Amino acid sequence: MTPRENLLHLLRREGYETVPVEFMLCPSLEKSFQEEIGGPGADYMEYFGMPWRRVGELIPEDTDITRFYPYYDEIKDNMEIDEWGVGHESSPTSMHMTKMHHPLEDAEEVEEIESYPIPVYTEEKNVWVKDRVKELHEKGLASVGNMQCTIWETAWYIRGMENLMMDMLSDEELAEAVFDMVEKMSTDRALIYAKAGVDILYLGDDIGMQHSIMMSEEMYSQWLYPRLKRLISKVKEVRPDIIVIYHSCGYIEPFINYLIDAGIDVLNPIQAECMEFKEIYEKYGDRISFHGTIGTQTVMPFGTPEEVKENVWGNLDIAGEKGGLMVAPTHLLEPEVPWANILAYAEACREYKKK
Amino acid sequence: MELLQEMSELLQKGKAKKVKALVQQALDEGVDPKEILNEGLLSGMMIIGGKFKNNEVFVPEVLVAARAMNAGLSILEPKLVEVGNEPVGRAVIGTVQGDLHDIGKNLVCMMFKGAGFEVCDLGVDVSSDAFIDKAEEMHADVIGMSALLSTTMCQMQACIDRLKERGLREKYIVMIGGAPVTDDFARQIGADYYTPDAASAAETARSVVLEKKSA
């Protein structure tokens, strides 16, 4: 099997030959990888033989971000505006992190939302995606359309999380307008990826906190669940075979049944510090697969290489020989994660012996 | 008092305009501003805090309740100053240096305010000296630090070390919180308290400060 075939079989719980290695490095770890391991310009995904690649970000019709300037009092030198109009301000002490600025933070009227110049995505502008998918498949790699901010997060980036949460309770019309705008854009994006033939559509919206869910089930099922379900069903109408992965950090157990019902196939990351993988697997492992499970708040930065390996092997044992777990760190690896632990993770994947 | 009871209930439902109107009505009727604060506003916020801690309500409900409290406070605060009301305590709260996440920290500030504290929100990316200087300036009781990242948790230790260097460690109650933070970590770095959520943080701070003051 090619790495792509192996991965797709694993995610569909149809057995697998090898354990795929997959993680993402922050810029400082990527730099140290090139300096100490791979050599100048080396690609860590290739070096570690990762089975998938993102096909790349879609290009909107209008790429001129100056149309968002009127939404800000000041465009600081250390601030970048992204394609959705969200501002990201960097700080000398915060590494690759930025502070977000929300263009519709002060909006009070539905008209202000409706006139917002949200980007428009079309197939015509993104015909390149098909070629990229083909190129990856020819190399034996799986293709991923990455949309990890799908509805809720994109909406809160544009409106501000606190404002949007309050709108959902006290200004429903405004919240509705924001969500409608984002759902339309995200559905268009998802369909472009799906029609271009990506193997995997990677969705996501954080709906959990460390110890509890971010909002009530009632609120979730009113606002977010129907929109996610609509988006996924449109995607699966055109591509019934596509694998939908959904990401949310934190504790989200009360939402898992909703996510399954909405049509997700794989759940990421099952944050080890928030949910017990064994328990989650036992409850939901016959209906969905998993990606992640190796804690990036605990074992990856602060554990020993042996502990990393034990974690990897223990979780693979839980999933069993049919697969269903793409074992990986639960989040981007941050600067404090030692290379010994990253190498131990990769070794553990390669050395794993099925029970 | 029925009016204050109604105010507390409306605050819990996040009815900012109505809460504000009731605060005005209570002031017009000559109700003691301290009583309006404690029985009308803070009582409602503390009930919301308790429900949040027990996962009966979630972040959105807390946000609208805090907005209603602030609406009431906007007209009540000048009157509280006039009658010389003293807050339960004073707290400086911020996200540590290198960390730009503020949602959790904002919730903590709201809960502290709802527990009767005067709060200085230092924002994000706050250096150790900025925490300490502000605490000194406002005669704070509590320094509250937040971090979302395992990368920035070490800044909590840095602030505690800096407090020691400046000979001020014993003067402040140091509280920490944030996604990767644990009780063990708090003990390891010598913080006084770790709490797992914003409501518990405010509750702990209130009882510790009141106990300290009554000692």
List the helices and strands and how they pair.
The complex is a heterodimer of chains A (355) and B (215).
Chain A: H1 3-11, H2 27-38, H3 44-47, E1 52-54, E2 79-81, E3 87-90, E4 98-101, H4 110-114, H5 128-138, E5 142-147, H6 152-159, H7 161-170, H8 172-195, E6 200-204, H9 217-223, H10 225-238, E7 243-247, H11 256-262, E8 266-268, H12 277-284, E9 289-294, H13 299-302, H14 305-319, E10 325-329, H15 339-351
Parallel strand pairs in A: 1-5, 5-6, 6-7, 7-8, 8-9, 9-10
Antiparallel strand pairs in A: 2-3, 3-4
Helix pairs in contact in A: 6-7, 6-8, 7-8, 8-10, 10-11, 14-15
Chain B: H1 2-12, H2 16-28, H3 33-53, H4 59-82, E1 89-96, H5 103-114, E2 117-126, H6 128-137, E3 142-146, H7 154-165, E4 173-177, H8 183-189, E5 193-194, H9 198-214
Parallel strand pairs in B: 1-2, 1-3, 3-4, 4-5
Care to describe what's here?
The complex is a heterodimer of chains A (355) and B (215). Chain A is of the alpha/beta class and 355 residues long. Chain A has one domain: TIM Barrel. Chain A has helices at residues 3-11, 27-38, 44-47, 110-114, 128-138, 152-159, 161-170, 172-195, 217-223, 225-238, 256-262, 277-284, 299-302, 305-319, 339-351; strands spanning 52-54, 79-81, 87-90, 98-101, 142-147, 200-204, 243-247, 266-268, 289-294, 325-329. Chain A has a seven-stranded parallel beta sheet. In chain A, a hairpin with a 5-residue loop joins strand 2 and strand 3 (87-90). In chain A, helix 7 (161-170) crosses helix 8 (172-195). The longest helix of chain A has 24 residues, at 172-195. Chain A is globular, with a radius of gyration of 20 Å. Chain B has a five-stranded parallel beta sheet with strand order 2-1-3-4-5, with helices on both faces. Chain B has nine helices and five strands; from the N terminus they run H-H-H-H-E-H-E-H-E-H-E-H-E-H. The longest helix of chain B has 24 residues, at 59-82. Chain B has two domains: 2-82, Methionine synthase domain (Methyltransferase, Methionine Synthase (B12-binding Domains), Chain A, domain 1); 89-214, Cobalamin-binding domain (Rossmann fold, 3-Layer(aba) Sandwich), CATH 3.40.50. In chain B, helix 6 packs across helix 7. The two termini of chain B are 32 Å apart. In chain B, helix 8 links the parallel strand 4 (173-177) and strand 5 (193-194). Chain B is 59% helix and 14% strand. Chain B has 215 residues and is of the alpha/beta class. The interface between A and B is medium-sized, with 33 and 26 residues.
